[in-house]
Amino acid sequence: FLDVCSHEYADWMRLRKRLRPEFRDLSDEAGWPGISIQPGILAIDPRFARFKFYEGYAGKIELVRRVPTPHGNPFGLAAKEDYLFLGTGESASGLLVIDAADPADLRVVAQAPRRGPWILDVKAAGDLAFSSDAGYVNIYDVRDPQKPKVLKHLRCGAKYMSVDAERKVLYYRTGNMKLLHQLDISDPANPRELTI
User: Fold this and answer.
1) In 10 A of CB 192, how many CB atoms?
2) Torsion over CA of 60, 12, 53 and 87, rounded to 10 degrees?
3) For 102, which DSSP code?
4) In principle, which of 81, 115, 132, 180 could form an S-S bond with 136, CB 3.0–4.6 Å?
5) Cis peptide before 33 (omega within 30 of 0)
6) What residues are paired with 181 via a beta bridge?
7) Is 90 helix (H, G, I), strand (E, B) or coil?
């Protein structure tokens, strides 16, 4: 038995850091087995008992445009249709919303506040966006991405997240990375902890 998200596995595989488990839709409808996974992620879909590792990228990446962001390193990026959601580092900006309809003309069109000092992770699912920062999960209504609304700042110790939009569950890990927690987000303004 081997924990592929452990430090021992990361050392053995000569990875810079251990893999982060994250829920992903790995169904046939989502494109299994051709789904691409980001480096450093172990994608898991318990509904189908499937998992997938990063397999490399064979395409060519070309810089099209830079978007100026406030002071601090950006963390976390999620997409919804023609919009990108970017978590900012040490700046006071919180979650930036970028209009990406024209990749040659990317523009910051909105900002949404966060609760803690910096955002570590960003996800989007349906009409919602999520960010985690310094122990909080911030839940945003992004039906109109140019006017995001804060639905909830929930203090729960969250560090890294993934979302199952179909089941309306947000999975998160705390700083110790040992336990996987679940939040029922069927009522996003009043999320509740689920027991595993």
Assistant:
1) 11
2) -70
3) S
4) 115
5) yes
6) 172
7) coil
Count Cα atoms within 13 angstroms, Cβ side, for 157: 11
Residue 102 and residue 178: Cα distance in Å, rounded? 41
* 30 has pLDDT over 90: no
Residue type, 187: D
Rounded CA-CA distance 137/150 in Å is 11
Which whole-number Å values give the CA distances from 77 to 18, 31, 87, 98, in the listed order? 20, 22, 7, 10
As a 3-state breakdown, the chain gives helix, strand, coil percent values, each rounded to 5, of 5, 40, 55
Predicted pLDDT at 161: 77
Query: Which single residue is written with the structure tokens 């910051």?
Result: 108
Q: Which residues contact 13 (CB under 8 A, 6 or more apart)?
A: none
Residues paired with 132 in a beta bridge: 121, 137
117 token code pair = 């000092």
> Which two structure tokens, joined as six digits, stand for 14?
């000569």
Q: Tokens 């976390």 sit at which residue?
A: 76
Measure CA 117 to chain center: 17
Helix (H, G, I), strand (E, B) or coil at 166: coil
